[in-house]
Every structure is written in structure tokens, then in C-alpha cells.
Amino acid sequence: MDDELHERVREVIASVPAGSVATYGDIASVSGAPSPRLIGRILSEDGHDLPWHRILRADGTPAPHLLDEQLQRLREEGVLADGQRVDLRKYRWQRDPGDDAGLGGLFQLRLA
Q1: Distance CA 61, CA 88 (A)
Q2: How far apart are CA 60 and CA 86, in angstroms?
Q3: What are the pLDDT digits (tens) for 76-106?
Q4: The domain spanning residue 27 has which CATH number?
Q5: For residues 24 and 36, is the Cβ–Cβ distance under 8 A?
Q6: Domain span including residue 56
Q7: Which stretch of DSSP H or E encloses residue 44?
Q8: What share of the chain is helix, strand, coil (3-state, %, to 5)?
Q9: Residue limits of the Methylated-DNA-[protein]-cysteine S-methyltransferase DNA binding domain (predicted)?
Q10: Going along 1-112, which residue ranges are E strands?
Q11: Between the N and C ends of the chain, which has fewer C-beta atoms within 10 Å?
Q12: Is 87 helix (H, G, I), strand (E, B) or coil?
């Protein structure tokens, strides 16, 4: 993985606002990463300063080893889970096209 992709992934994760969640796949798609697994790897190795708790699995659940802390952090932001699952239809991050400029044109490149 090159440094540019690594930084794009970090920028996209950092842009997920409080009260919203995204999936590993959402972040991979927006950043141009080849796999959602790469997002998890970046978060585990270099995500301590990012809002890692806002990134969930495709079914709306946290990784098992992060479950309690992740759901607690999300609750503090107003994201409520039904058991251990967050309703992605309700809380999933909906990017505002006006936010594209804040990511260095990343979205324009991906949509062109």
C-alpha cells in the first residue's frame, strides 16, 4: 500500500461526523482502497487518533473485540444500537457533495 492511499483512507475516516457511522466497505469505496479489510488494517495500525468507533462491519455490528467500547462511544454520540447492531438505514453516513472539497477533491476523482 502506498502512502497516498493510506492518507486518503485516514482522511475519509476522519470526515465521518459524530452521530453517524460508515462501514469498512463504505470507506474502501470512497477512498479507492481495494478491500474493506485494508481499512481494518489501517485502523488497527494507525487509527488511534481517528474516530475508529464510527466504522462498523457491513451488518452494522462492531468487531467483537471492540464491542463494548465501540457501542459506548457511539451511544455518547447519539447512535443507538438494537442489541449489538446499529441500524445503518438510520445512522449511516450520507456524504454531502459540498464536503468533497475538504478531502482534496477525492470524491471528484472517484466520480469522474
Answers
A1: 10
A2: 5
A3: 999 999 999 999 999 999 876 656 544 544 4
A4: 1.10.10.10
A5: yes
A6: 3-107
A7: helix 36-46
A8: 55, 10, 35
A9: 5-79
A10: 22-23, 55-56, 81-82, 85-86
A11: C
A12: coil
Within a domain: 112: no
pTM: 0.85
Half-sphere exposure of 94 (CA within 13 A, CB side): 4
Does residue 9 lie in a domain region? Answer: yes
Dihedral, 103, 76, 88, 36 alpha carbons, nearest 10: 50
Q: Report how many domains make up the chain.
A: 1
Say how far apart CA 45 and CA 30 lie, in whole Å.
Answer: 20
How does pLDDT run across 38-78, given as a tens digit for each residue? 999 999 999 999 999 999 999 999 999 999 999 999 999 99
Distance, in Å, from the CA atom of 84 to the CA atom of 95, rounded to the nearest integer, reads 25
Question: Would you tell me how many other CB atoms lie within 10 Å of the CB of residue 104?
Answer: 12
Are 76 and 11 contacting, i.e. CB atoms less than 8 angstroms apart?
no
Whether 57 maps to a domain, the answer reads yes
Give bridge partners of residue 82 from the DSSP assignment.
85
- The beta-strand segments (E) located in 7-106 are 22-23, 55-56, 81-82, 85-86
